[in-house]
Amino acid sequence: MIPQGPKRIRRWSVIPKPLQDEAITLYSQGLSSRQVAKKLTLKSSSVSRICREISRDKVASMLLAKPSRSSHWRTCRQVSRRKVERALGRKLSRLEHVHHKNGDYTDKDLPNLEVLTALQHMRLHNQGRHKAYCKHGHPLKGDNLFIRHRTKRGNPIVEYVCRECSRRHQRESYYRDSPRKGM
After folding, report:
1. Among positive and negative, which fits the CA dihedral 108, 113, 115, 119?
2. Residue 140: Cβ within 10 Å count
3. What's the rounded Cα separation, in Å, for the pair 107 and 109?
4. Within a 10 A sphere around the Cβ of 108, how many other Cβ atoms?
5. Model's pTM, two decimal places?
6. Domains annotated on the chain, with CATH
7. Which among 1, 11, 26, 162 would be 20 to 30 A from 81, CA to CA?
């Protein structure tokens, strides 16, 4: 015979009053309905029905949820955002990013996290990150480097352009666009 766990009480209306009171006290102490059900050998749906009057909102129940064990960067990002939102007491906007100061996205300690705007975060991670060579192999430094500032849809863009390629492109377009004699 296969050993079975303790039998669970099926209907919540049949649950004795002292057991209902104990479920409510455990739930109000911070245990989830599943944890209370496991402790008292009840069905979690029964505990949910018993504790419906004092039920928590979604944010409060998320606070009690088990911490994520995943080390995937998306999961860590969500957990870090939630942690900062709890500390600030407000939701972060889409334009606010959470930056990990030490660079380890699995380190979710509050002193390691800081809130930056999307632009600040991009600039912080892209510091000094322009290409060393153009697509034709010319070095992008010294006299050969031309920094072009322009805007695209109102956003400032900085381009690192190779002077040699730029000159060659201008010469080619000049000869291509000029009218030919004798034709």
Report:
1. negative
2. 18
3. 6
4. 19
5. 0.38
6. 12-62 (1.10.10), 67-125 (no CATH), 142-177 (no CATH)
7. 26
